[in-house]
C-alpha cells in the first residue's frame, strides 16, 4: 500500500486505506486504489487468505460545500464495483462524508422503539450498553462538534433518562440525570 502512496490502517482483521487528493485527481485515485487492492488480494491468495470484496466500502470525505463535486460512480475493488456511501461505521463510531457526526448522533436516538417490550432494569442495561457506552467510548471524536449537534446529543441522553424512568417530556431532567450519574 505504501508503494502506491496509500496510508493503511489495520485493526484486527480490518484494513482501511486513507488518502488525500484534489478533486481533479479523484479518477486517478480510484485507479490507484483498485490496482493496490488487486495486489493485496493476490498476496493474500498466495498466503491462503481471502479478501472479502463484498465488505468493502468507499467513503469520500469533503466539506458540505463540495459534496456535489465528489465522484458518485463506483470504485472497482477486486471484481466488485463498490458504490460510495454517505456514512460508515468504524469501531462503533458512525462517520459521515462531511465529518459532522450527525449520523452517529442520529443512530443513538433509535432505542425508543423497544421501550414497551422491556422491564426498567433491562431498559437501563440496554441504554447503558447502547447509548452511554458509545458516548463515553467516542467522546474524543465528538469534541468540537457544532452546538446544534451537541444539543442533539444532550437530547439523546435526556430522552434515554426519560425512557428509563418513564418520565414525561415536561418533567425536569436534571434530577433524573443526577440519579443515573450522567
Describe the protein's architecture and organization.
With 182 residues, this protein is α+β, with helices and mostly antiparallel strands. The protein has helices at 26-46, 102-108, 120-137, 139-142, 147-165, 174-180, and strands spanning 7-11, 14-18, 75-77, 80-82, 87-90, 93-96. The protein folds into two domains: 2-85, no CATH class; 102-180, no CATH class. The chain is 42% helix and 13% strand. Strands 1-2 form a two-stranded antiparallel sheet. A two-stranded antiparallel sheet has the order 3-4. A hairpin with a 2-residue loop joins β3 and β4. α2 (102-108) runs parallel beside α5 and α3 (120-137) packs antiparallel against α5. The radius of gyration is 21 Å and the shape is elongated.
Give a concise summary.
This protein is an alpha+beta fold and 182 residues long. Helix content is 42%, strand content 13%. The strands form three sheets. The protein has a two-stranded antiparallel sheet. Strands 3-4 form a two-stranded antiparallel ribbon. Strands 5-6 form a two-stranded antiparallel ribbon.
* Large-scale geometry: elongated
Structural class per helix/strand content?
A: alpha+beta
| Beta-strand percentage range | 5-15%
Give the strand order of the largest sheet, numbering strands 1, 2, ... along the chain.
1-2
**Count of helices?**
6
Amino acid at each position: 500500500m505504501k508503494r502506491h502512496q496509500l496510508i493503511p490502517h489495520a485493526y484486527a482483521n480490518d484494513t482501511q486505506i486513507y488518502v488525500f487528493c484534489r478533486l481533479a485527481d479523484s479518477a486517478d485515485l480510484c485507479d490507484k486504489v483498485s490496482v493496490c487492492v488487486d495486489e493485496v488480494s493476490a498476496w493474500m491468495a498466495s498466503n491462503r487468505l481471502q479478501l472479502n470484496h463484498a465488505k468493502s466500502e468507499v467513503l469520500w470525505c469533503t466539506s458540505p460545500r463540495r459534496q456535489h463535486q465528489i465522484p458518485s460512480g463506483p470504485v472497482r475493488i477486486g471484481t466488485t464495483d463498490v458504490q460510495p456511501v454517505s456514512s460508515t461505521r468504524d469501531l462503533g463510531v458512525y462517520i459521515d462524508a462531511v465529518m459532522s457526526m450527525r449520523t452517529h448522533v442520529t443512530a443513538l436516538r433509535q432505542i425508543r422503539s423497544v421501550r414497551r417490550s422491556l422491564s426498567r432494569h433491562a431498559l437501563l442495561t440496554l441504554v447503558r450498553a447502547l447509548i452511554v457506552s458509545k458516548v463515553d467510548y467516542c467522546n474524543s471524536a465528538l469534541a468540537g462538534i457544532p452546538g446544534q449537534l451537541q444539543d442533539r446529543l444532550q437530547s439523546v441522553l435526556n430522552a434515554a433518562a426519560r425512557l428509563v424512568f418513564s418520565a414525561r417530556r415536561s418533567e425536569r431532567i436534571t434530577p433524573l440525570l443526577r440519579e443515573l450519574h450522567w
